[in-house]
Amino acid sequence: DVKVTQSSRYLVKRTGEKVFLECVQDMDHENMFWYRQDPGLGLRLIYFSYDVKMKEKGDIPEGYSVSREKKERFSLILESASTNQTSMYLCASSHRGLRRGQPQHFGDGTRLSIL
Amino acid sequence: SQQGEEDPQALSIQEGENATMNCSYKTSINNLQWYRQNSGRGLVHLILIRSNEREKHSGRLRVTLDTSKKSSSLLITASRAADTASYFCATALLILTGGGNKLTFGTGTQLKVEL
Asked: Does the distance separating the beta carbons of A51 and B98 come in below 8 Å?
């Protein structure tokens, strides 16, 4: 089974702090994704990466950056945390599968509170 | 912007009954995927239907896709209490730079199956 592991289930930080969320997958997937999930808004894509050191903006990249130095690890960085970034953050990974549909495999999420 | 919109937002049924959830979207897609999320957990992929397919089955799940109406439905037959979860549809576009899918999720249907 594919395993996507997020480093923390719950995290509490203060406004202005630099926050790192880590995600590791063990299935040699090329693509990795970061989403945030908020009540009534569903999941929204923040950033994704299709290869080491490659990244593309999703729908809501403002206030976030990402890093992918190794294939199995994808980090989400909140440069200066703000209260409106309090949310559930979900990491996912998938194979490339050119032209074919590819399911995404999700971690259990990090519930981040910014005080 | 969100593509998929699920209907209904919430559904409560008795064990043994069938549950039907609908999803509408706005633009052309490569495929459409359905996911399940148990409370406080990550999403689990259920089924993927490609844009040239009309119906697909997997165990107690049946998915239909009508690209002319830009809509899909998920039917869970003979529901069980363990099916209680949120269900999301996700429309998929190809990631042109590297392959794989970029997903856009709806806001989900909360299904409660009562004993």
From this structure: yes
